[in-house]
# Entry
Amino acid sequence: MVNWTGMYDCRGNVDRVPELLDRAEREGGAEAWTELGYRLCLEDDLVFPASFAALPRLVRLASSDQRARALAGTIVRRAAGHHGCDDLFADCAGTIAEFRVLLDRYLTSRPDDYLAAFLDLLAVNAQYHWSAALGDFTDDFYHLACPHCGAEVTIAIGDYGRYAAIRDWNLGDVERRDLRPAAGEELSGTGRWMHDTAVRDGQEELAAGIRYLFGRAECPRCASVFNIADEYTSAECPAP
# Structure
């Protein structure tokens, strides 16, 4: 039983969220879910003590309600930010493990919101970086610096092409070099898990995009070859 004392939401209230959870479970109305989303996950990636206090119940409802599943996923994704509730999130370890199993099972059903649930599962597995960065590979761009010459390189993975290029303000992407995708068996770690999950669930375009993202690129300026995922992670998540 959650002790809601001190578990304030975005309005500073400690009693409104449990009331809304009761209404959402009992009636399933859109109004209750909309207000819950507002109070637990305010814009600008903010979450609150009530967000983590509500997580166990949201996960319990998530097996039968897409709105609960999506809201729980949003809370977990935002757990990587600065919210001052690290102890509360740590207390949710059992809930997170339960949510991991639920999301993995949900993905095997190949739902219409597959990518959103896939990103939630990445966050549940503490892969917050890729949860925030990964797209559907129809119109994806990743910007990084060549590790050898420092040139600013644009990596494109989409329907229009899969290449490394130098972005020119007037000319667009110039000096294009085709990317070199990794074979599935060459992948390891997070890349291998992401790829194998997408393959398991028949998500061919997602799996192909992951092979390119975790493959190699040639710098258009110095012709050196580097691992795309490693350099992008280094650019977005520099070592402390």
